[in-house]
TrEMBL record:
Gene3D superfamilies: Winged helix-like DNA-binding domain superfamily/Winged helix DNA-binding domain. PROSITE patterns: HTH_MARR_2 (PS50995). This is DNA-binding MarR family transcriptional regulator. It comes from Fontibacillus solani. Keywords: DNA-binding, Transcription, Transcription regulation.
Length: 152
């Protein structure tokens, strides 16, 4: 028998599991969400520096370590989406830039994600969209506080 808030907690857990099953952040054209994320950050970095970005800059933007990013960049390079090359001013640095194909995939992904969330906004309406955003921000805040308590 479920007592008190246990039922409500179970309902929240079930709702999160349902959301996870929708794969709203699913892959585009067979690329993993992590690979697409790297492409987004390379594109963002290229907006700041036309020479491209370094793996350490990508990892910093993503909040992960360079060894996490390196195989993703290598995979994207193998698929013709990015190029890596030595910086002309500092040969120790390896820079990464999108190829035309990588830029096209990034633009397509951005459009798909934007369309998906605009559709959700239209479906929910103004008030519920604002409520959902507020609630998700609170969920994030709660989870961050829990993470801090666990790490203390």
């Amino acid at each position: 028998m479920i007592l008190g808030n246990e039922h409500r907690a179970h309902r929240l857990m079930s709702a999160f599991n349902l959301l996870k099953k929708t794969a709203w952040h699913k892959a585009v054209e067979g690329y993993k969400p992590s690979e697409l994320k790297v492409l987004f950050f390379i594109r963002r970095g290229a907006g700041r520096d036309s020479r491209g970005v370094t793996v350490s800059e990508i990892s910093s933007m993503m909040g992960v370590t360079s060894p996490t990013v390196t195989p993703l960049v290598r995979s994207l390079e193998d698929n013709g989406l990015v190029i890596r090359y030595n910086d002309q001013e500092d040969r120790r640095l390896v820079r990464v830039k999108l190829t035309e194909e990588g830029d096209a995939l990034t633009r397509k992904s951005i459009k798909l994600y934007t369309d998906r969330f605009e559709g959700l906004y239209d479906y929910l309406g103004d008030e519920r969209s604002d409520q959902l955003a507020d609630l998700l921000e609170l969920v994030f805040q709660y989870m961050e506080e829990q993470k801090k308590q666990i790490n203390e």
